[in-house]
Amino acid sequence: MSTKLKNGQSRYQSKAKVVTIKKFQLLTLAKATHCFNNAEFENYGDAYLEFPVIIQGDGSPSEIFNLYLLKKLEQTIQYDFKTFASIAHQLVDFQRFLEDEQLDFLKFHKLKQLNAIFQYRTRLIEQTNAGLISANSARGRINAVVNFYRFLVTEDLVDHQRYGIPFKDVYKYIAVDNEFGARRKMAIKSHDLAIHVPAKAPNPETIADDGELSPFSIESQTVILKALLKSSREYQLMFYFALFTGARLQTICTLRIKNLIGRKPDSQGFIRLPVGSGTGIDTKFQKPMTLLIPNWLAQDLKIYIDSPQAQQRRQKSSYGESDENYVFLTKLGTPFYTSKAEQQELIEKIKASDSFGARLKLYEGEAVRSYLKVVLLPEIRLIDPQFPSFKFHDLRASFGMNLLESQLQHLPEGHSAMTAVEYVQARMGHRNISTTLQYLNYKSRLQWRNKIQHEYESSLMKYVNSSVNLAGDLS
DNA sequence: GGTCCACGAGACTGTGCGTA
DNA sequence: TACGCACAGTCTCGTGGACC
To answer: Are residues A277 and A343 in the same domain?
Structure first.
């Protein structure tokens, strides 16, 4: 019996699943023969990698769900296998429900409560209330199924003329205040089976910055740095990079050797490194920004790059001994994170090959997360047994907190505290200053709140006023 | 130590549209 | 044309167990 709580196959008896086809190519019949095996086919359109297919509990492919995925593929301009995998996983949940309940989803009833989709919605709500899945997941699944039904109706695959369709498109009205305070209604298109997701109450113990982050105190940072001394040089440098630049894991792992060559420090002792779109270094959503790397860290990285250890890893890697290679590689020579640019190279390579067996393997930081939990955290707990579990991104939050504190400490006479906040906002790449203001508000920095209490509150009010949630005022 | 797999959670972006 | 914001869709991160 599965011990996982949040696992589709533990919530249902059905063995329905999603499998992915490594390389998927549509074919057209060029020459028909009496025997299908002798027929000749021609390639039709592009090849798609890692295309998901829904398999029913009895092991056969689901014709209707897979037809839907194909139709969606036909309408897609930019194919992304992760998007299709996401839709397939949402739909397979519905398939499992249908098999368990032995329901015919193509049969529509006058009484809407008898329709399979209505019963599925009820089940999703029950699972949400029982804490088996989140409201977000329930919302995503019912929306995916509604879209699937829209396809059935559009393509005339069901007898909807007789009983109508099992859901209704509805317009919900929300209240919007403009900058002058005038309130008006705005219509949002939805459907009558939508599952409402209540707005999450902010957790005062964390900072909502790309997830719920918990910055470390200076004491905790010291413990981490001490434990890191026992780690390999690669992991030391990766963790230093996060703590001293605030970069995300994705950015650190996609740094290339060429990015560090020939860069001179500025007057304040920082190497200014552009990252994001067009630089070859990935950022979230490829957002362009400039990282400020302390020169001592940049020098350590250069020494590491020239070390025999780094050279050995490069020799095992696909890029080999080249400046195009990543700064950090695992001991097997694989990247910790496959950059967007390399993903594209791999996709083109597999598409161009005749082989249908080549696998698109992408790395997305699993090794680092695994290392943090399995190796580093136990090492930290040898120093401090009470040390809580943490995420790599908490290092970024700690960087933000350190930076803010240092900016406030060195604030020139007569300068606004908001100057410090705006500086941190730019360095962290926050789109919205309200995210940066959370750092100011964080409980461990109460002494700073007291110092700048008045200014802080007036600044905060401005943002609070602009983001008051008015939904629900209108029915 | 690192990889693989199968998910779940949730943050971010695009969309829709009335009004100044 | 910019702005407001909930919803829907997309995509990244995280988890846990098994395995090499």
So the answer is: yes
Residue lying closest to nucleotide B18, CA to C1': A186
- For residue A96 the two structure tokens come to 């499992």
CB A90 within 8 A of CB A144: yes
> Which bases on strand B have an atom closer than 7 Å to a protein beta carbon?
1-13, 16-20
CA distance A251 to A235: 15
- Identify nearest nucleotide to residue A82 by CA to C1′ distance: C11
A198-207 long-range contacts, CB within 8 A, separation 24+: A198/A135, A199/A469, A204/A443, A205/A443, A207/A397, A207/A400, A207/A435, A207/A438, A207/A439, A207/A442
- Chain A window 429-468: residues with CB closer than 7 Å to nucleic chain B are 431
Tens of pLDDT, residue by residue over A234-269, are: 888 888 888 888 888 888 888 888 888 889 999 989
Distance A284 CA to C12 C1' (A): 8
Same domain, A402 and A368: yes
Residue A469 belongs to a domain? no
- Mean pLDDT is lowest, of A122-126, A368-372, A380-384, A458-462, for A458-462
Give the CA A285 to C1' B12 distance in Å: 9
Whether residues A45 and A154 fall in one domain: yes
As a rounded value in angstroms, the CA-to-C1' distance for A189 and B14 is 14
Q: How far is the CA of A143 from the C1' of C8 (A)?
A: 8
Confidence of residue A188 (pLDDT cuts 50, 70, 90): low
* CA distances to A176, A221, A284, A401 from A398, in Å: 36, 8, 19, 5
CA angle A256, A261, A262 (to 5 degrees): 155
- Both A288 and A351 in one domain: the answer is yes
Å: A199 CA to C4 C1': 18
Of A65-69, A140-144, A260-264, A465-469, where does mean pLDDT reach its minimum? A465-469
Angstrom distances, CA of residue A241 to CA of A38, A234, A257, A298: 59, 11, 15, 9
Residues 250-269 of A with CB under 7 A from strand B: none
Number of domains in chain A: 3
Q: How far is the CA of A231 from the C1' of B10 (A)?
A: 31
pLDDT digits (tens, 9 = 90+) for A261-319: 889 999 989 998 888 777 778 777 667 778 888 898 899 888 888 887 788 788 777 78
**Is the domain of A20 the same as that of A74?**
yes
Please tell me whether residues A272 and A184 are part of one structural domain.
no
Task: Report the CATH number at residue A382.
Answer: 1.10.443.10
Q: Is the CB of A140 under 7 A from strand B?
A: yes
| pTM of the predicted protein model | 0.76
Q: How far is the CA of A210 from the C1' of B3 (A)?
A: 26
**Which nucleotides in chain C lie closer than 7 A to a protein CB?**
3-18
Residue A281 and residue A189 in one domain: no
Host domain of residue A83: 8-165
Of A320-324, A419-423, A437-441, the one with minimum mean pLDDT is: A437-441
pLDDT at A464 (0 to 100): 31
